[in-house]
Specification:
Layout: E1 20-22, H1 36-45, E2 50-52, H2 60-65, E3 74-76, E4 78-85, E5 88-95, H3 102-128, H4 134-142, H5 149-158, H6 165-173, H7 188-197, E6 201-204, H8 214-226, E7 231-236, H9 241-252, E8 257-261, E9 276-277
Parallel strand pairs: 1-2, 2-3, 6-7, 7-8
Antiparallel strand pairs: 1-9, 4-5, 5-6
Helix pairs in contact: 4-5, 5-6
The chain binds adenosine monophosphate and manganese (II) ion (3 copies).
Length: 294
């Protein structure tokens, strides 16, 4: 594989020689296990050539690595924004935005506040379910990271209330369970606008995770387009050809670009490794062809 592109060589019509992309990853600045610096170093070691750290609702991890970009890897700014479409929680990935954009920073500050508020409400629900001290416990585990349900799940395992984090989601934190409080996020179009007005590209993350009917998923895609969204994530984690075909169609019908990522949080026996080889992708469709490194 030839990985010799210099910065500035990436016009959309040029043949794609940069082939291993990861535009969806998490560090310990949100709910991932690795420090941002260790994660990006590992991505470079594993042959990833273009990389975005897309922590949930924070760019702190990204800001911590802009000075430590490993040789051979191009870093693109990234974030995975929580939002909602109607009452459904949706994730929109922002890539290649200006990280000093005031409106985007204000949007992120609102998400910080929403997460702090939500964590208190989750803790209250867990307390009612017989688990006192959840807020303090989860905050201690988060250790300054953007707080989320996974930190509660880890605390519940550490406290012996459940056997595994999966169990914690299944019984207490997952969809429809007491700790699932998802009505506080900004509307989908606000998140898309926040990314775009900061010069970034907005990607609809893992569309099949929302468990929608095909008709409803198209309606979501259309709402995303109308808000200015530009791309669909066609590979998230382990590639599933059937899923990817469906997602390509979703993108094709509205002439959207495509993005890919591992959604790496930590090593697991069943999870995807870092990086997606896009050598065989058709030219002119990948978001990586229009994004410049930071
Ligand atoms: P939050 O951002 O606080 O809403 O938490 C969502 C995060 O929890 C996702 O990004 C996943 O990393 C994690 N998650 C969601 N569902 C599960 C599950 N069933 N088991 C383990 N982790 C999960
Ligand atoms: Mn996560
Ligand atoms: Mn997500
Ligand atoms: Mn993610």
């Amino acid at each position: 594989m030839t990985l010799s592109n210099e910065r500035g060589d990436l016009s959309p019509r040029r043949s794609v020689v940069i082939a291993v992309i990861d535009f969806h990853t998490h560090s310990a600045a949100s709910d991932g296990a690795l420090r941002a610096r260790d994660l990006v170093a590992r991505a470079a070691d594993e042959g990833v050539t273009r990389f975005a750290l897309t922590d949930h609702d924070t760019i702190a991890g990204y800001l911590s690595i802009t000075q430590y970009v490993p040789h051979g890897l191009e870093l693109v700014s990234g974030v995975e924004l929580s939002c909602q479409w109607g009452r459904v929680g949706i994730h929109v990935i922002g890539l290649g935005f200006d990280e000093s954009n005031a409106d985007l920073l204000e949007h992120l500050a609102q998400l910080d506040a929403a997460r702090v508020d939500r964590s208190a409400r989750i803790a209250h629900r867990l307390e009612k379910a017989g688990m006192p001290g959840a807020l303090e416990g989860a905050l201690e585990i988060a250790a300054g990271a953007q707080i989320g349900r996974p930190h509660f799940a880890r605390w519940m395992v550490a406290s012996g209330y459940v056997d595994t984090e999966q169990d914690a989601f299944k019984r207490f934190l997952g969809r429809g369970k007491p700790g699932d409080i998802s009505v506080l996020w900004p509307a989908l179009h606000c998140s898309v606008e926040a990314i775009i007005q900061a010069g970034g590209v907005a990607v609809l993350a893992h569309p099949l995770e929302y468990k929608m009917t095909a008709t409803r998923l198209r309606a979501l895609r259309d709402a995303f387009c109308e808000a200015g969204g530009q791309a669909i994530e066609v590979i998230n984690g382990r590639a599933n050809p059937g899923d990817a075909d469906q997602l390509w169609r979703l993108a094709d019908e509205r002439d959207l670009m495509v993005s890919v990522g591992s959604d790496f949080h930590r090593d697991t026996p069943y999870g995807a490794g870092l990086g997606v080889d896009v050598t065989a992708f058709p030219e002119g469709r990948g978001v990586w062809e229009v994004l410049c490194a930071a």
